[in-house]
Write a structure and sequence with these properties.
The chain is an alpha+beta fold. About 30% of the residues lie in helices and about 25% in strands.
Length: about 200
């Protein structure tokens, strides 16, 4: 049974069935719990593989999963473009995620994997923009199964780094231009635009 990210937040108690949460990115499915799964964000791709993240390796073995993202109290599974619809693969994915969540205190123990690198902003403007993203944008993107973080502020353009369900989401351009850019221009009217640094 799938739930909507717009109407529900977390899974039921650990003793009950874990439920996937639908997010704006149709290729992503989020599973959330009421405890910390990782103290830092990590993302593993199918090409990378990871012996240090068993849940990702088992999901990759299905042949249907492209990326696995873990941050705070949730894990997001991103399927391959040519994989079956979620209705066909949901039970397998849910059972794998549930098994690992219930068997481990943290999915990503400290020191087992390198966290997603976080950029250090230069200058006062960069620091203010980075703080804005952390305080006002990051909580919302986590709710949708991903993260948008500061990459750099250069020549009047704010570059951001997308991860989890945010990377590849069909609505990301709208989020950057009508969400982040509009918000940032209230304090930085000289801002020329907001763009993703992912594909540079």
């Amino acid at each position: 049974m799938l739930q909507s990210a717009r109407t529900t937040g977390t899974m039921e108690e650990a003793t009950q069935a874990l439920q996937g949460i639908q997010v704006p990115n149709p290729d992503a499915l989020k599973f959330a719990v009421d405890r910390i799964l990782s103290s830092f964000p990590v993302e593993i791709t199918f090409e990378q593989g990871s012996k240090h993240l068993p849940v990702a390796d088992e999901l990759f073995d299905s042949g249907w999963v492209e990326r696995v993202f873990v941050s705070q109290n949730f894990i997001t599974v991103i399927r391959k473009k040519d994989s079956p619809q979620w209705s066909e693969m949901y039970r397998l994915v849910r059972d794998i995620v549930e098994k690992h969540i219930l068997s481990m205190k943290e999915l990503v123990p400290d020191g087992s994997l390198h966290p997603i690198e976080e950029a250090v902003p230069d200058g006062e403007d960069g620091k203010k923009l980075a703080a804005m993203l952390t305080e006002k944008i990051l909580p919302a993107t986590r709710g949708d199964g991903g993260e948008i973080r500061f990459d750099r502020y250069e020549d009047g353009v704010l570059y951001v780094r997308l991860s989890g369900a945010c990377d590849g989401c069909p609505y990301v351009s709208e989020t950057l231009s009508k969400g982040i850019e509009v918000l940032a221009k209230r304090e930085f009217p000289e801002l020329k635009g907001v763009t993703s640094a992912n594909r540079e």
